[in-house]
Amino acid sequence: MTTAIIPGSFDPVTNGHVDIMQRSTQMFDRVITAVMHNSSKKPLFSLEEKLELLRISTEGIDNLEIKTFDGLLAEFARKEGATVLVKGLRSVTDYEYEIPMAVMNREINTELETIFLPTSPQYRVLSSSIIKEVARFEAVPNGFVPPAVAEALKQKLSER
C-alpha cells in the first residue's frame, strides 16, 4: 500500500489544490492532505478554519485524509508511513522553489520521493495569494475556489 502526502498551507484551499488531491487519490492507495503552519506567511484563516474548508471542499473523495503537523515534513511522512510527496507545479518558478525542498526531504528521509504533477491548465494561474488579493475587492472568478471557500472569504474579509 503506497501512502502519499500533499503538503500545504491551504490558505485558502483552491480548486487547483482539490484537483491535485483528486488526481493523487487515483494514483495512490492512501493520500494525506497535510496542513502545515507556514511561519513565513500571515494566514487569513485559522488552522481550524482551513481544516473545515478542506473537509467540505474534498467531501466525496475516497482514500483522502486531512491531517495537521508541526515540525519537519520528512519526519511527519516517516510517522505516517508515507513514501511519496506530491507537489503541484504551475510553472518553472514553482519547480525551482520545490527542488531544494525535495532534496532536503530525501536527505532527512531516504524512503521519501517527491513527484511533481503539472497543474491542470484551467488552474495554472491560480494561487491562494492571488485569490486572497482579488477577494479583497470581491472579484474571485467563478470556478477558482469551492463555493464554501468563496463564502468564507466574503465573511472573513467583511470582518476586516
TrEMBL record:
Signal peptide as annotated in the record: none
Residues flagged as site, Transition state stabilizer: 17
Keyword hit for ATP-binding: yes
SUPFAM superfamilies assigned: Nucleotidylyl transferase
Protein localization: Cytoplasm
GO MF: pantetheine-phosphate adenylyltransferase activity
Pathway membership: Cofactor biosynthesis; coenzyme A biosynthesis; CoA from (R)-pantothenate: step 4/5
A Pfam family that the UniProt record links to this protein: CTP_transf_like
Cofactor(s) this protein requires: Mg(2+)
InterPro entries noted in UniProt: Cyt_trans-like, PPAT, Rossmann-like_a/b/a_fold
Keyword Transferase: yes
Keywords carried by this UniProt record: ATP-binding, Coenzyme A biosynthesis, Cytoplasm, Magnesium, Nucleotide-binding, Nucleotidyltransferase, Transferase
Principal localisation: cytoplasm
Source species, domain of life: Bacteria
Domain Cytidyltransferase-like: 5-133
Record EC number: 2.7.7.3
Catalytic activity as recorded in UniProt: (R)-4'-phosphopantetheine + ATP + H(+) = 3'-dephospho-CoA + diphosphate
Binding residues for ATP: 9-10, 17, 88-90, 98, 123-129
Residues at which substrate binds: 9, 41, 73, 87
PANTHER family in the cross-refs: PHOSPHOPANTETHEINE ADENYLYLTRANSFERASE
Similarity field: Belongs to the bacterial CoaD family.
Quaternary state and interactors: Homohexamer.
Role of this protein: Reversibly transfers an adenylyl group from ATP to 4'-phosphopantetheine, yielding dephospho-CoA (dPCoA) and pyrophosphate.
Name used for this protein in its record: Phosphopantetheine adenylyltransferase
